[in-house]
Amino acid sequence: MPKTALFAVLSLALAGSATGPRPAPSWRNTSWLNADRPITLESLRGRVVLLNFWVFTCYNCTNTVPSLVDFDAKYRERGLTVIGVHTPEFPPYAGEHDRSNVQRALEQYHIKYPVAQDNDDRTWNLYGIRYWPSFVLIDRKGRIRYEGAGEFHVGDADYRLWEGRIRELLEEG
Amino acid sequence: MRRTAALILALVAACARGRASTPDAARPLALRTVPVGDSLRLVLEAAPGWRINARVKPVLESADGTLLRFDAPGLTPDSAYFAEPPVAVVAARGRHPIRGTLRASVCAAGEAVCRVVRLEVRGDR
């Protein structure tokens, strides 16, 4: 019998883009790292918020982390809050759900910004995310303004694009 | 022609979170079986342009919770992806049907994103 193969079908819609302003939904994650207590969207009103959906086993995600660390260092004082939303790809047996493993990744990649564990995918689903890594940029009024996905690196075109978006929203006052 | 076991792969959801609802589709993975003695090698192959994440190894999870992990010695220089198809070996052909959910994290070259592919595997050997 010939080998049997059936291919999975996937789709892509990666281009980061501006979205019509719409209210960002409130996440309710309870397990946080780099934070004394759970951070709510409501508590961030008045700040620009960059959500990064990632998982430490995703190479594209960890390759992008230096850019996020850079944004955090450059713009936190000016009103940007970077938040990592750590959403596992696999069931718990893969270790992605373990807080200690996430903590190790934060140390490995020098992540100082808050990271929420999204082990039940609730925030992932709340925002309709499809890929690792993905990004959601929220303005000072709590509205989603830009969304996108895909790895980028410090100084490259996508980095400059996201930095421009951050600066635009910060300047809105 | 070598005889290979029949594996019927039923696509439950093309990917656990990416779904498969739009027509501009790609086809990232295939599973084939190769008998070796009394064992059966399950070989997970990526379509051209796709890479299988080696940081979280593909797993075939049976209904009873048994996990069958895929692995391969050859990785890309950054150790992020398999450089050759990962393999799992099932012993004693014919003893049990191969059934379960296969999960793999795949990344398309040039797109710089990853997603989970989930395949429902049903087949007798």
Radius of gyration of chain B: 14 Å
Q: CATH architecture of chain B, please?
A: Sandwich
Counted by DSSP, the helix tally of chain A is: 4
The number of domains of chain B is 1
Question: Percentage of helical residues of chain A?
Answer: 25-40%
Strand order of the largest sheet of chain A: 1-7-6-3-4-5-2
Radius of gyration of chain A: 16 Å
How many angstroms separate the termini of chain B?
17 Å
Task: Report the sheet-strand fraction of chain B.
Answer: over 45%
CATH architecture of chain A: 3-Layer(aba) Sandwich
Largest sheet of chain A: 7 strands, mixed
On the 0 to 100 scale, the average pLDDT of chain B is 76
Query: Beta fraction of the residues of chain A?
Result: 15-25%
Largest interface: A-B, 37 and 54 residues
Termini distance of chain A?
Answer: 67 Å
What are the main properties of this structure?
heterodimer; A: 173 residues; Glutaredoxin; seven-stranded mixed sheet; 4 helices; disordered N terminus; B: 125 residues; mainly beta; Immunoglobulin-like; three-stranded antiparallel sheet; 0% helix
Please summarize what this structure is:
Chain A has about 170 residues and is α/β, with parallel strands linked by helices.
Please explain how this structure is put together:
The complex is a heterodimer of chains A (173) and B (125). Chain A is α/β, with parallel strands linked by helices and 173 residues long. Chain A has one domain: Glutaredoxin. Chain A has helices at 59-75, 99-108, 122-126, 157-171; strands spanning 17-23, 32-33, 48-54, 80-86, 115-117, 134-138, 143-149. In chain A, strand 4, helix 2 (99-108) and strand 5 form a beta-alpha-beta unit. By secondary structure, chain B is mainly beta. Chain B has one domain (8-123): Immunoglobulin-like (Sandwich), CATH 2.60.40. Chain B has no helices and 9 strands. Chain B starts with 7 loop residues before the first strand and ends with a strand. Residues 1-25 of chain B have low confidence and may be disordered. Chains A and B meet through helix 1 of A and strand 1, strand 2, strand 8 and strand 9 of B.
